[in-house]
Amino acid sequence: MKKTISVVISAVMLLALFTGCGGSKTSNGVVNVYNWGEYIDTSLVTQFENETGIKVNYKTFESNEQMYSILKQGGVSYDVVIPSDYMISRLISEDMLEPIDFNSVPNYSQVENSLKNMAYDPDNKYSVPYMWGTMGIIYDPTVVGEVDSWSALFDEKNSGNILMFDNARDAMGIALKYLGYSLNTTDETELNKAYELLKMQKPLLQGYVMDQIFDKLESGEAAIGPYYAGDYLTMHAENPKLKFCIPKEGSNMFSDAMCILKNAGNKANAEAFINFMTGAQQSMANSKFIGYTSPNKEVKDILDADDFTKSIMYPDDATLVKCEVYKNLPQATLDYYDQMWVKLKS
Asked: Is the pLDDT reported for residue 19 higher than 60?
């Protein structure tokens, strides 16, 4: 999932993202896109602007919860948002999304059938898959040894070298999975056990992070932390010592999808952007650039990537069967999460 556009984007890229290609191009309006960071090949934005004359205003968020909070506050207008599975379900339940006119998104026919009729959008009314992937552990084996279990994140011998997600759903999910529970449990006894495990872990941590995991692991400032397979490929290119594993207890398999916000001011342009990003060539370029797995069924065959990269992007069935997709939880459970997280971080 990410997924972070950090401060490393150059002024030249930002200029391209927010102003398009110059004054000579005929303007066909704008589309306002809200996405995870480091989660797009920015040259595709320029290509889309060149081909359509539609200017892309592009902003980023660090987590589903941050995105949700910004949207609920209002005052900021977006057309396309790219949340994860469980958050899409929540946005649908709160009537925050607009049904998509799939006649305007013909490239949807190229999406893998296994990624349609997902639990978060069972009628395929509100979303078009953007990328999917897995979450696991990224680590430096020269510091922490070989890793195949979530236990490494709770091991005192790794104290001071451990990073942890700075959001409740992922942090609790890791603890739940390690304890043998479902990521989607609503059982307060199980949730309390996960909380106690995170409480025990807290003194061992170097810190709770999101964006910062890139610099900390790439530079060797930290040696182990949970993050996403796609981001691992980016980090590995900078620090080949790093390894990645999906723990034996299982993990999260996520699907991020493009959605249109309720009463979006530029719905037709939003659908044009979604259709463009779903096309095989664009989806392949995007997948190769960010390291996440394309939902387009043609991409695996045409993707120019080595076996190592493909093994990370396309885990085998024996691995995937142990992974779960996050579901939207009842409001009472979400409130309980919030209470536990505030208590943990205080």
From this structure: no
